[in-house]
Design goal:
single chain, 641 residues, mainly beta, globular
């Protein structure tokens, strides 16, 4: 610690000696923050070192209704048909690396983390309440979200963010219930900067294994006509659930060394400390033991040491400590970038089932070193680069290198932004990819490290509402789940080519917003992907009495048919299947989307195409249809003081 403090002091005194205070210009902490008309600043932070990244508030009107649907959580999303259930992006470039507790990965769009969360600083108390609903009481879908933020002076902010989701489901045994809340706080001054994030979660979802026969949706006339409601359609499982619980405690503190100039503090270097604690648990259980045993007959036959009983459980704990030293960008003419060095110590503990009544606990520890280089200011050139290396323990030999560079060029009387991005990863497989034990699956693997290379770029032309993006990724030792639900490793290389176009058009009140993606996998047997996916929204926008903004139109989600993933209830992972192709069906919805002063509200006629497209093959993945034609309502209100 003394050495770190001494190096920080060295940066400080060197700048004064070589350049003097007169050559230094002032850096405001929020100089790059986005100011709303209410003088509220929003930002993200980097999880390891707490660097501030400006962010926009979620106050946009366009597509507000769509963002409340699962389909709106990505360009094209494969999921189990109900809000709150496991999901996976069909666009490979949007998928994240598997986490250490991979059972929560299918809920990535719902779960919060310090890096994804929007911290804020508001001059007056601010709150937001959002509510959406659909369906009658027995099948009702509801989600209530609330945010409250209060500042105590200019430097200290406290807040609560609550998300309660209860979707009973339009099909048998398909309910989802989430309770997720965040207590957050941030303190920002010249010398001190701190972020606190506390997040307990509790997710329960029923498992039905999909419907028994897809003809119940696509050709209902062939089926038993006495079945008149979707809840009566037979499913492969019932009275079976998954329960995920967890909590995260995160604290980042930064002490800045610097000097006063014109009564404003100028930071030169920073000492950074971060603690990140997580614990998570998973339980898979049923009251229909005979049905579940029949469903997993093939898997149970493969087990040599069956633990016994019908309930599966596992748990995980992780604690990370990070210490870092940073030299700040902009305190001098020669300080053209941020430069940060860090060391992280991580301790993990995994509890697995065993052949006896006593569970097995396995512990791992890893040490990482690395650094970050970033230039976030400048009119024509900005860049960032990050690197981390596993030097001791379970992740010895791991490394991640990534970077991007952005420049701005004149284009048709405006300015276009051109960004290049690349990364190289060499990573030890997640612990649960190597080891897992349950009543239905049992594996101990010796997988090699996975390697990923990516290079790509983006061109953004605001003048024409155009964004073009293209990239190529190469995978080696890719880990996937086979048709039985077991993890396997593919030794050969797989290349994925992705090209994306976002293009919006406007002719007076008429708007046409589009996003198109083309992708190609070099091995469709191991990594199947739709060749083409699209989202398009056509609407008119106008004002009534100058205060009510109205958007009225229809949108469509579409992807070409492919062998979509199947879903494995016991592990909550998506796996391969080669029996059923899904896609080539437009999911069409009509909407009325409005904004009045501090309120946004919508009415949506979801899956309207099912009433006139034949056959109505509105499946998301094999055996999992999305909700039938329904009316959805939503409201979001901002409240002040």
């Amino acid at each position: 610690m003394k050495a770190v403090f001494s190096i920080s002091l060295f940066f400080y005194f060197l700048s004064l000696h070589l350049f003097g205070q007169d050559s230094l210009h002032v850096e405001h902490l929020h100089s790059t923050s986005i100011d709303t008309p209410l003088k509220t600043n929003y930002w993200h932070i980097t999880e390891r070192t707490g660097e501030i990244i400006p962010a926009f508030p979620d106050t946009f009107l366009t597509d507000y209704f769509n963002r409340t649907n699962v389909e709106g959580l990505g360009l094209s999303v494969a999921y189990l048909g109900n809000l709150g259930l496991p999901m996976e992006s069909r666009i490979f470039a949007e998928r994240e690396d598997r986490s250490e507790f991979l059972f929560t990965d299918p809920f990535y769009a719902y779960m919060r983390s310090p890096a994804k969360f929007k911290f804020m600083n508001t001059k007056i108390p601010y709150s937001n309440v959002s509510y959406q609903t659909a369906g009658s009481r027995a099948i009702k879908e509801e989600r209530l979200q609330g945010l409250l933020a209060v500042n105590f002076g200019k430097k200290l902010n406290f807040g609560f963010d609550v998300d309660y989701l209860y979707a009973r489901g339009y099909y048998n045994s398909q309910s989802a219930k989430h309770m997720d809340w965040v207590f957050f706080s941030n303190y920002l001054s010249g010398r001190h900067q701190a972020h606190l994030f506390i997040n307990p979660t509790d997710y329960t979802n029923a498992e039905n294994g999909g419907i028994e026969n897809d003809n119940w949706i696509s050709h209902p006339d062939y089926m038993d006509r006495s079945v008149s409601r979707t809840q009566e359609i037979p499913t492969l499982l019932s009275n079976t659930w998954n329960h995920l619980k967890g909590k995260q405690f995160y604290l980042n503190y930064r002490y800045n060394l610097g000097f006063e100039k014109d009564s404003v503090f100028v930071p030169v270097s920073s000492l950074i400390f971060t603690i990140d604690y997580k614990d998570k648990s998973k339980k898979f259980y049923t009251t229909d033991s005979a049905v579940v045993a029949s469903y997993y007959e093939e898997q149970i036959k493969l087990l040599k040491n069956k633990p016994g009983g019908m309930n599966d459980s596992t748990s995980y704990q992780s604690t990370k400590f990070t210490a870092a030293l940073s030299m700040r960008e902009g305190f001098s003419e020669w300080a053209k970038f941020d430069l940060t060095a860090f060391i992280t110590q991580q301790f993990n503990s995994f509890t697995l089932m065993d052949t006896t009544s006593i569970n097995t606990e396995e512990n791992t520890k890893s040490t990482y070193i690395g650094g970050e280089l970033a230039k976030q200011k400048g009119k024509y050139l900005r860049y960032s680069a990050q690197g981390s290396f596993g030097v001791l323990g379970y992740n010895l030999g791991d490394f991640q290198l990534s970077g991007n560079i952005e420049t701005r060029l004149p284009f048709w009387g405006d300015t276009a932004s051109v960004t290049a991005k690349a990364y190289f990863k060499n990573l030890e497989p997640a612990y649960y990819e190597q080891h897992y034990r349950s009543n239905y699956f049992w594996w101990d693997n010796q997988f090699n490290k996975t390697r990923k290379y990516y290079i790509g770029g983006t061109i953004d032309i605001p003048h024409t509402n155009t964004q073009l993006e293209a990239g190529v990724e190469n995978l080696t030792n890719y880990i996937y789940f086979d048709t039985l639900g077991y993890p396997k490793q593919h030794k050969d290389n797989i290349q994925i080519l992705t090209a994306r176009l976002m293009q919006n058009f406007q002719l007076r009140a008429l708007h046409w917003d589009n996003q198109l993606v083309y992708q190609q996998s070099s091995d469709e047997h191991i990594l199947p992907l739709p060749d083409f996916a699209a989202y398009s929204s056509l609407y008119v926008q106008f004002k009534i009495t100058k205060v009510l903004t109205v958007q009225m139109g229809a949108n469509v989600h579409y992807w070409t048919s492919y062998y979509t993933p199947a879903y494995e209830p016991a592990t909550q992972q998506f796996k391969l299947q080669a029996q059923t192709k899904v896609g080539n069906y437009p999911l069409i919805s009509g909407f009325l989307n409005c904004h009045l002063k501090q309120a946004r509200f919508f009415i949506e006629y979801y899956n309207a195409g099912a009433s006139f497209i034949s056959p109505p093959e509105y499946f998301s993945i094999q055996h999992y249809p999305v909700n039938p034609t329904i009316l959805k309502l939503g409201l979001s209100v901002d409240l002040f003081n």
